[in-house]
Design a protein that fits this description.
The chain is α+β, with helices and mostly antiparallel strands and 132 residues long. The protein is 15% helix and 43% strand. It has one domain. The protein contains three helices and eight strands; from the N terminus they run βββββαβββαα. A four-stranded antiparallel β-sheet has the order 5-2-1-6. Strand 1 and strand 2 form a beta hairpin.
Length: 132
Amino acid sequence: MVTIINYKERITKDGESFFVLELQGGVQMVKSQQTGKFYLTAKRATIPSTFNEAICKTLLGNKMPGIIEKVNTEPYEYTIKETGEVIELDYRYEYQEENETLEHNSIEKSETTVDDFLKIGKNESFSMNGVE
């Protein structure tokens, strides 16, 4: 589940304004690469909307099915607002519907068909531990 936690006004290249909704996924435990200690965080992403500001305000706190996933992108520069430091990133976070996340993840599909299974003899077993 994701929660609508904020909204922001954005301007298109043509000068038209619209609102994006800021979504936040569930809390995650992450281990710091620098200290080795755990901390809690949550992934965030924005999604464009067709809503005006009044409607965006009423949507705050609403929960929707789905998750926020890390998606690889072409490298781009990002400025950290707090420090002004410019860093290069090659990913972003995007909202994904729950049923699309299964397709989006790397699931290796088997080339084995039902006919292949039927050809297996009675003495052969799929078990890795020898127990049938």
